[in-house]
Structure formats: structure tokens, C-alpha cells
Amino acid sequence: QVQLVESGGGLVQAGGSLRLSCAASKRTFIDPGWYRQAPGKEREFVARIRWSDGSTVYADSVKGRFTISRDNAKNTIYLQMNSLKPEDTAIYYCNIGQWWGQGTQVTVSS
Predict the structure, then answer these.
(1) Please, which residues bridge with residue 99 across strands?
(2) What's the pLDDT band for 81 if we cut at 50, 70, 90?
(3) Could you give the angle at the alpha carbon of 26 between the alpha carbons of 34 and 20, nearest 5°?
(4) What are the residues whose beta carbons fall under 8 Å from the beta carbon of 43, sequence distance 6 or more?
(5) Between the CA atoms of 83, 50, 74 and 44, what dihedral angle is there, to the nearest 10 degrees?
(6) pLDDT, tens digit, for every residue of 24-35?
(7) Please, are residues 6 and 18 in contact by the beta-carbon 8 Å criterion?
(8) Confidence of residue 85 (pLDDT cuts 50, 70, 90)
(9) Backbone phi, then psi, for 26, in 5-degree steps?
């Protein structure tokens, strides 16, 4: 069992920045990532990172604006979100394999 605790969501104006954190209760061999779900839409992939070498994958919609990173010593991943747009408004979820965080709300006002 892995517990994921997210933090860092909030309300920000368009063009602003937020940083999300996700702390895992223990280390796994499964690479972690972020997903998001906007009202009335399905959950979608945002970004993923490898514990081993830090290599990353991003959804096209966030490429160049969001940065995923990790701190192996703390079993924690981060999502730095810059140049936020109203369409980024969603609940953001941390994911490792079958485990999901509780979600953190990100709201971007125009």
C-alpha cells in the first residue's frame, strides 16, 4: 500500500504560477506522474517522471509551461506550473501505479 499526499493547489490569475507537491509514503519502482480532471471531462495525463534518471514526458497541452521533478530522498514529486491558463483549471492528482492521491484543486481565473 502506498499513500500519496498532495499539496499546493489554489486560486491564481491567468499567467501566474503554482507548485504542486506529492509525497509518497514509501518508495516504489513504479514511475510517478500527474493527472488532472476538469469539470465534466475525463481524467487526463499531464506529466510523468522516472525515479531512476529523471527523464520526463509531458502532455502537449502543458509542454513548455509545466515542469515535473522529483526528490528521491523524500519520495516526493513536484509539478511547477507556469503561465497558467483558465483551461488548466482542474483537480490535479498524483499517481503511482494503482495508487492515487486525494487530488488538489487548481483554479485559474481569467
Answers:
(1) 96
(2) very high
(3) 30
(4) 35, 36, 37, 93
(5) 50
(6) 999 899 999 999
(7) no
(8) very high
(9) -160, 165
**DSSP character string of the chain:** ---EEEE--EEEETT--EEEEEEESS--SSPEEEEEE-TTS--EEEEEE-TTT--EEE-TTTTTTEEEEEEGGGTEEEEEE-S--GGG-EEEEEEETTEE---EEEEEE-
Q: In what order do the strands lie in the sheet with 18-24?
A: 4-7, 18-24, 76-81, 66-71
Strands 56-58 and 32-37: unpaired
Give the chain's mean pLDDT.
97
Site of grid cell 476538469 = 38
The pLDDT value recorded for residue 97 is 96
Residues in the chain: 110
Q: Grid coordinates representing 86?
A: 483558465
pLDDT tens-digit series, residues 56-71: 999 999 999 999 999 9
